[in-house]
Amino acid sequence: MARSMTAELPAHYALSALARDNLRQLVLLRAIAITGQIVTVAFVNGVLDIPLPLLPLALGIGFLALFNLATWLRFRLYQPVVDGELFLQILVDIAVFTVLLYFTGGAANPFASMYVLNLAVAAAMLPPAYTWNVAAITATCYVLLIFFNAPLMHANGAPVGIWFQMTGMGINFVMVSGLIVFFLVKIIATLRDHEHMLAQARENDLNNERIVQLGAFAAGAAHELGTPLSTMAVVVKELQGRWRKLPELLSELRVVSNQIEICKATLSNLLASAGRTRMDGGGKAALDEFLKAVVENCRLMRPQIVVTCRCDGTPPAPEIVMDQSLRQAITSLLNNAADASPERVDIEGRWNEREFYIRISDQGRGISPEAADKIGKDFVTTKPPGQGHGVGFMLSSAVIARFGGSVRLFNQPECGACTEVRLPLAPLRVSACS
Prior knowledge:
The chain is an alpha+beta fold. It contains 12 helices and 7 strands. A 5-stranded mixed β-sheet has the order 2-4-5-7-6, with helices on one face. A two-stranded antiparallel ribbon has the order 1-3. A hairpin with a 3-residue loop joins β4 and β5 (355-362). It starts with 10 loop residues before the first helix and ends with a helix. 23% of the residues are buried.
């Protein structure tokens, strides 16, 4: 069963996609019914020597075939499918089937119990109100066919025998049973898939709400932190002037000054990027340069940690638009690895024509199975109490998912954990953003 949506789509679209899949199943069922009707008419008229009114039967089957073709072409319009449309589709099937039965014996036709198939499909696809309407219309049609019909007769004018009724009823039972089981299993499988997608959509909506709240808090914190950082920068500069004759102290003060400048730059980028997607007015850089710039920023933030970087791909590296949110997301993942492995972190970047891969490996203790099941779905951290809240990984995952990518965190065979980022290049290329 092919899925017509992803988990990132909103809940109302998931419901529309379910109705669209149901309509697709209905088109397939109708195609099978048309084929069966053509074969049955040809067999009864030609082999069993029971003359049938071929013109009205051909018009009815032909109309149903054209209607099915129009429904199939309707999928190209990308318009939402609603329950009312499915209801009308089933009514058309009932109407045409009733006309065919009228010219072939009415309720005495052994295939009249095929009405049950329409009822089963309606019960599986439609809300109760629509289903009860289908049941009432079907019952009315069946009762009318008892009194109004063209009886089946042999070519010599004799009525059809009981053997024809019994044989037809047996064939009909096998066909109806098989079709009901086959299509109900498919419809129920589709329903389960879309219920799972709805659950994921609700979870994504909840996560997005949390992220919006964090974004509002981050914007306020950026304004509040600007003043103390500026004060700290002035104090450090004065201390550097007082202790010029102590190289060791000056070196440490220089580290503090660099850290303050990084914090100020981060806050400036945060405030400047509010309401703007691309930073630096849409600046561009090669993939390897982008990754090396992120790593160099991490080295400035964590001078005590050895951070190695290796890039691999067919040169020249494709150019992408520098996106501040993506840069911050990868930096956050690097910081998480540095927290877990305070001595060494290895980062590897690879690209091909379609995707960009980033692997961040640490030498820490890895992640527990309990945390592995929850990371990325909630604010879960593997750090000691009071040292982390799981916000960074969740925000990074949300940013990367916005570009169509994914983040996977798993333990390595030897030691430590590995964070694997997969990003499609199409949304990042300069040509796609210009």
